[in-house]
Amino acid sequence: SERRVVSSAVAHLVLVRPIRAMSPEIIEKAFAPIRGIPCWNVRQGHGSFLTLEFGSPKLKIGEVRPRSSDDPYAYARRFISIHGDSHLWIYCCGWRIAQDGNVLACNESTKESIATACRALEGQAFSEFTFRPESGSSRFMFDLGGKISTGPYDDELLEQRMLYCADGNVL
Length: 171
Description:
Layout: E1 3-7, E2 12-16, H1 24-31, E3 39-44, E4 50-54, E5 58-65, E6 77-83, E7 86-90, E8 94-99, E9 102-106, H2 111-121, E10 126-132, E11 137-142, E12 146-151, E13 161-164
Antiparallel strand pairs: 1-2, 3-4, 4-7, 5-6, 7-13, 8-9, 8-12, 10-11, 11-12
């Protein structure tokens, strides 16, 4: 099944197709534009979410959000973010970051360990994506020995990643 996602980072509706419903050729085509591109701003987001940027930085400036009248400490503000041409978001899954075969951190590690693991991936070029539909596991490989492995939290095979592509599509 397909679902629609509204993303403040993308600022428009995008159609998301579950990866299990895609052929290997479509998956290969979706990841081809970031193959050989170094990742940057690799970081932990909310909870154990991971984000990685690829390609040229793009500044996104949101609309002004007015001050809340009932909160004396609230101020008018504007959301600003910097994303790459492509943006990989890993979420709602178990994951491990490894370098040269050594696990550096997992989704249950301390913030400090996760930050260290993210720094290890910084600047590494994406080289390969594999997906095993029967287990729901994925593997992201990088040129300098980095690897991110993902798997479902439980038996429910939820989507574990979104790749926001430069052409506006989301895998």
